[in-house]
Amino acid sequence: MGDTHVTAATPDEGAAVPVTIRDVARASGVHISTVSRTFSAPHLVNPETRVRVLACAEDLGYRPNRAARALITGRTHNIGLIIADIANPFFPPLIKAAESQARHRDYHVFVADTNEDPTAEEELVHALAKQVDGVLLCSPRMSNSLIEQLSREVPLVVVNRQVTGLPCVLMDVGQGAREAIEHLIGLGHDRIALLGGPRSSWTNREMRRAPPRPPAPAAGS
Prior knowledge:
The protein is an alpha/beta fold. About 40% of the residues lie in helices and about 15% in strands. It folds into 3 domains: about 5-70, lambda repressor-like DNA-binding domains (434 Repressor (Amino-terminal Domain)); about 75-170, 3-Layer(aba) Sandwich (Rossmann fold), CATH 3.40.50.2300; about 175-210.
């Protein structure tokens, strides 16, 4: 595993020198390969040893070289997050949640906006495929068949869209629309408009397929 360029000051010379994997191994009393496994395959390291190595690395200010680690493990620890429209208020909380969860797992998130353009979505998946370990597609505008095809190039998780055979994160938007309409009807409104997104949108179709339930018959009828 390659040395990093993180530096620390030496008390004798006052000059900055690189903090290396060898320094961490020496400080924690383990072999260099154990330090490497702690960062590249932590499940293979004894938990007590792993904690000691990580603590020494933190004290020394050591950070693993991500490029070198990727060469060893075949994993970049990056995730692509492709969204339909960053100006849509639905997406910023989703982005923040994804980044928060990624940080807890030592991953970085690359965010890209397609401006509702399916061609841009496809191009972005191709561009990110070799730079990330997987891609989150949020409310994609591409066809299901194209999404399935792209999933052979890079692991995909689809948000707010159902694609057979792929992991999906879904909300019951039909039920939500139904409850909203029923609430308005209960308030006495009988002329209700639905302002939906593009007709090709999965969310829009789900809302239109969820008419309100008929009102319950009055007591004694």
